[in-house]
Amino acid sequence: MLNAPDGSPTNAVYGFLRILQKLEADEAPDGVFVAFDRPEPTFRHEMTATYKATRTGMPDDLAAQLPVLKEVLDALGAVRAESPGYEADDLLGTAARLASESGAEAVVVTGDRDSLQLVTDSVRVLLVRTAKGVTETKSYTPEVFAEEYGFEPPRLVDLKALMGDSSDNIKGVAGVGEKTAKDLISRFGSLDRVYENLPDVKESVRRKLEAGRGDAYLSYRLASIITDAPLEFDAAAAAKRADTPKLRELYSRLGFTKLLAQLGEADAEEQMSLFETLKFELPDGADASVIGLNVKDELRRGEDLGREFDVALAAYVVNPTARTYDLDSLCRRYLGREAGESERAAALFMLRETLDAQLEESGCRELFYGVEMPLCRTLADMERAGILIDQNALNAYGAMLDARINSSRETVYALAGEDFNVNSPKQLGEILFDKLGLPAPKKTKTGYSTSADILDKLKYEYPIVSAVLEYRELAKLRATYVDGLLKVVAPDGRVRTTFQMTATATGRLSSTEPNLQNIPIRRELGEKLRYMFVSEPGKLLIDADYSQIELRLLAHIAGDSSMTEAFRTGEDIHAVTAARVFGTELSEVTPAMRSRAKAVNFGIVYGESAFSLSKSINTSVAEARDYMDSYFDRFSGVRAYMADIVEKAKRDGYVATLFGRRRYIPQLRASDYNTRAFGERVALNMPIQGTAADIMKIATVRAYAALREAAPEARLLLQVHDELICEAPEAVAGTARTVLAREMENAATLDVPLLVESASGKSWGECH
Q: Averaged over 719-740, what is the pLDDT?
């Protein structure tokens, strides 16, 4: 699938244009004529209701691209035609005849072998075939056709009359196949001559021909391409005259960056036509807005910009799945061309105008101005603040890891019976699969794969695999979180991350250089890393964390009464789920049952299949499916929500959060099952994950403002998934903790309470 920045499918348009480019390079035509079918029945359907009756309808994702393709063809200067009652083949045949009669050579490009009947000395047919992603063409002249078929091109219709054509549901003569039909046409020359010479045909075939005479002549008429369709076509006037500015705008809108680059830079006249349209006037009495790209970076440097408009952030809110948000890409996408150095300020004004209108149209204006832009200033202050690292403790932690790494490596050597480079996939693969004979994956050119998913399947049965995985985990902790953090510690002992605001499709923030949102917490060794993040002397860290926000949002969005009641009464939702799924009393739920129910709960939130859930809880797919079926039986509101949201997404082309943030899902229109299944998982997950992201952003903005008023000495430091972390003097730590919890719990009004768990301590680890 290829998609435009707005999420609409573009793969058919792009594929058509690339094939057209290749053909134009090979053939160098003076002009291009393109014919389209119409949806109405043709004269052939009037002959028989069975004509093309076995054809399936055009896929929705392809039909949606036809108007776009026609728009592009018009900009390219191609002549295009369609006519009620006639097929595209009839228009091609008529255009080829008219071109031929005017003295021109016509080259008919098609994937339909029926068009070979059009081949003459002045009409050549290029038959296009695409297999395994490779497009090939074969050029048919009268000589090439006769060599392949044994008779002249017009006789192809006679052949189809006898043998039929299953693709068009043309019957032909029952019992007469291709070999017999070819033999008859080669011997007698035409359908008429075959029937004139029936006594010379062997008896078994003669009986079939006599019985099928009516079908043969009907099939002849159905298979004949009309060359006198109502079409005005002047070959001399069909020379292409492309509208380059229009093409530039279309390619930008569709995200065709390679095709856009081939158009070259816009000339001076074209650039002027863009930027001279700029008219920007401030209303009377308006403290002017600052328009920029990634204004958080300027705010982080301490610039006081007043009111800001970030064009990259606005483009992200409009379409969170675009690949890039740099100025050149935004200009190409929304203005139709790039801006030169002297025009970049003008481009920013025009982008604000365009994007502000799109924010209004998509219902995201309040989200942008009320949440995203205020969050820029908040995050800039958090990035400036950073968080203190206990470097002595981190070095000691690294030394402990070194000892564990060496021990794990020696264990691997002992189990392997020799020393080797454990970090080398090639050497490791040879040891595991050649020397030790473990069940081997398919061997590639570079050797065996030793990826985590391959080794995970073997770790319980083979101790050496378990030792290798432990070695890898320890080595990663050392390299990423000890060496990595020590490299970025500033002279004041603090590390400062950068929050990325346009990196995820759900609206969540990400953290880079270093990534402080990815501190491993599932195992004890990873959890110890949190103790390396500490407060300054005389201060405390306060951590406030949403409790099960995704499940609470699922209860609210789905409107499920059972789940809503569990959250309102403060019951353990995983235990409640276990009791319902396993059909037992709440008091009889075991830790193992609760653990499986927890996996089911989050599997539902993330749109997991039974196959994925089975891997999470280490059970069979059938058993996992039973758990999910039982879950939906007990929580019927969730089942209804999941069905409704997918259908709504298919209708609308997108899903939205409670705050209006959209994600377009073109994959729902794909013909490929796996691609559609991915789209359905996105449709299920995005409203919940995206709303959680919105709530967290709202809470961060409100907590930042409330802390500045109630405890000015306190500073927000980090936002990690569903957690906010601040640092405050011990004297006001209690106030800061209260403010954090209050603002987070009141960031949204739901049918269930938003619950926040908070704690304070000298380190991040102590807060947990």
A: 96
Asked if 291 contacts 311 with a C-beta cutoff of 8 angstroms, the reply is yes
- Residues sharing a CB contact under 8 Å with residue 201, sequence separation 6 or more, in sequence order: 184, 194, 209
pLDDT higher than 60, residue 278: no
> Does residue 275 sit in the same domain as residue 358?
yes
Task: Give yes or no: residues 18 and 102 share one domain.
Answer: yes
- The single residue listed with the structure tokens 């201060």 is 539
Instruction: Give residue 114's Cα distance to chain centre.
Output: 38
Produce one character per residue of 688-703: b if its CB has 16 or more CB atoms within 10 Å, e if not. Answer: bbbbbbbbbbbbbbbb
CA angle 678, 720, 656 (to 5 degrees): 40
Q: What's the per-residue H, E or C state across 291-314?
A: EECCHHHHHHCCCCCCCEEEHHHH
Q: What is the CATH number of the domain that holds 316?
A: 3.30.420.10
Number of neighbours of residue 4 by Cβ within 10 angstroms: 22
Residue 514 lies in a domain: no
Are 462 and 355 within 8 A, CB to CB?
no
Residue 743 near residue 699, CB atoms below 8 Å:
yes
Tokens of 563: 């789940």
Our CA dihedral for 489, 492, 493, 497, rounded to 10 degrees, sits at -50
CB-CB contact of 169 with 51 (8 Å): yes
Instruction: Let me know whether 332 and 421 are in one domain.
Output: no
Six token digits for residue 465:
């695999």
Q: Model confidence over 75-84: pLDDT tens digits?
A: 999 999 999 9
Name the DSSP class of 77. T
The answer to whether the Cα torsion of 737, 738, 741, 743 is positive or negative is negative
- Non-local (6+) Cβ contacts of 347 within 8 A are 275, 327, 331, 335, 339
The DSSP annotation for 587-637 comes to: GG--HHHHHHHHHHHHHHHTT--HHHHHHHHT--HHHHHHHHHHHHHH-HH
Crossing angle (nearest 10°) for helices 621-634 and 573-582: 110
474 Cα distance to chain centroid: 34
Beta bridge mates, 493: none
Q: How far is CA 594 from CA 548, 575, 599, in A?
A: 15, 5, 9
* Of 126, 198, 123, residue with least CA distance to 162: 198
Q: Are residues 571 and 478 in the same domain?
A: no
Residue given tokens 């021109």 in the structure block: 104
- Per DSSP bridges, beta strands 79-81 and 33-35 are parallel
Structure confidence by residue, pLDDT tens digits, 544-578: 999 999 999 999 999 999 889 989 998 888 998 88
Backbone angles phi, psi at 718, to 5 degrees: -140, 150
Are the C-beta atoms of residues 721 and 517 closer than 8 Å to each other? Answer: yes
CA dist 143 → 87, 123, 149, 178 (Å): 27, 12, 10, 21
Please write the tens of the pLDDT for every residue from 235-260: 776 777 788 888 888 888 888 888 88
Structural domain containing residue 615: 551-685
Reported as half-sphere exposure (CB side, CA atoms, 13 A), residue 627 has a value of 31
Residues 413 and 345 in one domain: no
What average pLDDT is seen over the chain?
89
Could you tell me the two tokens for 764?
């991040």
Spatial distance between the Cα atoms of 243 and 239, rounded to a whole number of angstroms: 13
**Domain total of the chain:** 4
Please provide residue 487's backbone torsions phi and psi, each rounded to the nearest 5 degrees.
-70, -25
Partners of residue 533 on adjacent β-strands: 389
| Predicted confidence (pLDDT) per residue in 299-351, tens digit | 888 776 677 899 999 999 999 988 889 998 898 888 877 777 778 888 898 89
Query: Quick one: DSSP state of residue 756?
Result: E
- Which pair of structure tokens corresponds to residue 34? 């393109």
Query: How far, in Å, CA of 576 to CA of 583, rounded?
Result: 10
- Cis check: omega of the bond before 514, within 30 degrees of 0: yes
Contact 233, 33 (CB under 8 A): yes
